[in-house]
Design a protein that fits this description.
With 439 residues, the protein is α/β, with parallel strands linked by helices. The protein contains 13 helices and 17 strands. The protein has two domains: 14-162, Nucleotidyltransferase, domain 5 (2-Layer Sandwich); 209-231 and 253-438, P-loop containing nucleotide triphosphate hydrolases (Rossmann fold), CATH 3.40.50. Strand 14 and strand 15 (401-407) form a beta hairpin.
Amino acid sequence: MDNSACTAIPNRDMIEIYTDGACSGNPGPGGWGVVVRDGKTHRELNGGEPSTTNNRMELLAVIEALQVVPEKASLRVYTDSRYVQKGISEWIHEWKRRRWKTADNKPVKNEDLWRRLDSLVSGRVVEWRWVKGHDGHPDNERADALARAGLEWARQAGKPVANVPPPLVKRQDVGASPTFRPILDIRHARVYRCDTLVFSNLSFTLREGEHAVVLGPNGSGKSTLLKLLAGEVHPMPLAETSIRLFGEEHPNVWDVRKRLGMVSYELQRDYLVGAKGLDVVLSGFYASNDTYHHQQFSEEQVGRAREVMAELEIASLGERQFGHLSAGEQRRLLLGRALVHDPPVLVFDEPTSGLDLKACFQYLDLLRAQMCQGKTVLLVTHHIHEIPPEIDRVVLLKGGSIVADGPKGELLTDKRLSELFDWPIRLLSVDGWYQALRR
C-alpha cells in the first residue's frame, strides 16, 4: 500500500471503507462496489450504470460509501484508483482555486461527482489510502467483485441499478472477510515436456470469481500450463514446489475434471469424427473422447445434456456426426461437453481459432454469457481479438516466464505487446474489445 498521501489519525471509532469501480469498455456499462467495516459490522453496497466510465464508477463508489457512514466517524478509505486518491487529497484544491478548471484552463472531468465528493468529505476526518488492485487483498477483491456484479446487472437492465445481488463468495463466518479461494495455485514449478524445460520457476494463482487471460506467443508455455491444469503433465518433485487445485495438493484428477470445464483447439482436432452430437456432450461426464459401452448415463444426465444443447442452440446436432459439422458447430458441442456437469471454472484455449467471423462472434457471446452467470473463466490465447471486455486481469507469458500480471488497462498497450511478441504493434480498442495492427 502507498500511504504517501495519508495523515495519521486516531484508531478509535475508525470505519474502514474499500471501494472499487469497473467498466466494460471506457465508456461502456460500468459498476461500483463498496465494503464497509465498522468493528465487527460488515456491510456491502453496489450498483451500476449502462453507459459510463471507469473513473466515474471509482468516484461513485466512494460517494455511495460516504453517504451511509456516520458524519462524525473517523474514516479510512481504500481505493485502487490513483485518480480518486490523488484527486481528492491533492488535485482538488487547485481545481477549486481555478473554479473547477485544470491547469490548462479546461473543465475538470467529472466535475459533478467531484463536487459531491468534496461536499461529503467537508468537515470529516478521512485518511485516503491507495491499495494495489488484484493483489490478493480480500476486501479490495470483494469490492471489485461487487463492482463487476453491478456492471452486469446494469448491462442487462439497460438503466442505473443499485444493491444488486452480489456474486457468490465463500465466507468463513458472518462478519468475516470474504475468502477468495485459489482455484489454481502453482508455486515455484519446474516443468519439462519430454526433454524440453518449459518452466524453470513458475508461480501463478487463479482465484474464484476472476476473469483472466494468459496471453503469449507460440512457444511461451501456454499449452504446458493447460496440461498442468488438466493433470496431464507434472512438475519436478522439488522441496519448494507445490501445485494446488481447488485447495488440494494431490487432487483426484477425475474430481478436478468434474469441477473444471476445458475447451481447446487440440481437443477439437483430436475428437473422434464418428461421435454423435449428443454423445459429445455426454462425454463430459467422464472427460472422455466420445462415449463407450461401459459408461452408464442416467435419465437425469441425458436430460441435462439435452438441456445444455438447447441453451447453446445445438439441439438439432444430437444425431449428427462430429466430423460432418462446421468448426463453429463442433466448438459449441465441446462447450456443451464442458458445461454439462456445471463446473464452477471454465478454461478456454484459443476459443475462436479456425472459426469464421460470424461463428467467432457467436462463440464469444456464449463465452461472455458464462461470465455473466458467475463462472470463473481463464482464457489462454495469443489472439488479441478473443479477449472479451469482461476479462479484467492479464497475464503476459513469454519464454516460460510470467513477464507481467495485472489489470487489463495497464498491460494491453502498444509497448507491452510489442515487447511480448517482438514486433512493433499498434493496439486499437473499441467498446472494450481490442485489435492489434502492425505499427
